[in-house]
Every structure is written in C-alpha cells, then in structure tokens.
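As noted in the main text, all predictions were made from sequence alone. Below is one such record, for DUF488 family protein.
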Amino acid sequence: MTKDVTYRRIYEESSPEDGRRVLVDRVWPRGMRKADARIDEWLRDVAPSTELRRWYGHEPSRFAEFRRRYLTELREPARRQAVDRLREIAGHDRLTLLTATRDVEHSQAAVLAEWLTGAETSRT
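Prediction:
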C-alpha cells in the first residue's frame, strides 16, 4: 500500500498535490454542488453504516469505539468491491480522502487513511 494518503474536508480548496480525490461519505455533502466538488470518485460504500454513524454522532469520546466498529464493518463481504477499489487507488496514486465532517481528525476519513497506510496495525 502507498504511504501517500491524506484526508480533509471536501469544502476546502482543491490542490494539484491532492492526487486522486475520493469522497468517502455515505451522503452527498450539504451545500456542495457536484460540479464544484472536484472529486474523481465517490465511494459511498466504504463509509460507515447509517447505524454506526448515528450511534457515533461525531462525539470524540466515542471515537476509539467508532474506529473499532468501523474497521470491523470494512471487513464485511458487502463492502469488498468498494474497499478493493479504494485499495487499488491508494496503491497507484497519491490519494486524498474527502469528507464533509467538521472534525476530520475524528472521522472515517482519518480511520481510512490510517488503515490504508498500515498505521492502524499498531493500534488494534
């Protein structure tokens, strides 16, 4: 896997250093027109389930448990195609994971970036 994976808010200005820009939210970001998003791909099936997202509620105190549950969800067979696609992109190109979440450090994008670079193995 590549080590060149970053993440940020979709509302921030795009940059040539972004490489491939992939939205990893299940729902389209509010107020963002598709024509203005400047994304290469939208992989909604790598996003946390609606149930997990609702439980988490972006409460930083729940992040560790959210991370654990989300990593479990990523291993589900129903997600294989989207997960494989994300791994393929990460293996070939610089990758910027995009999310609408305000607190990107406590988001699925942060978990995915860590997971794709192999950094999460030391935390599980």
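The longest strand covers residues 5-9. Strands lie at 5-9, 20-23, 41-42, 95-99. These features were considered when defining construct boundaries for the mutagenesis experiments described in Section 2.9.
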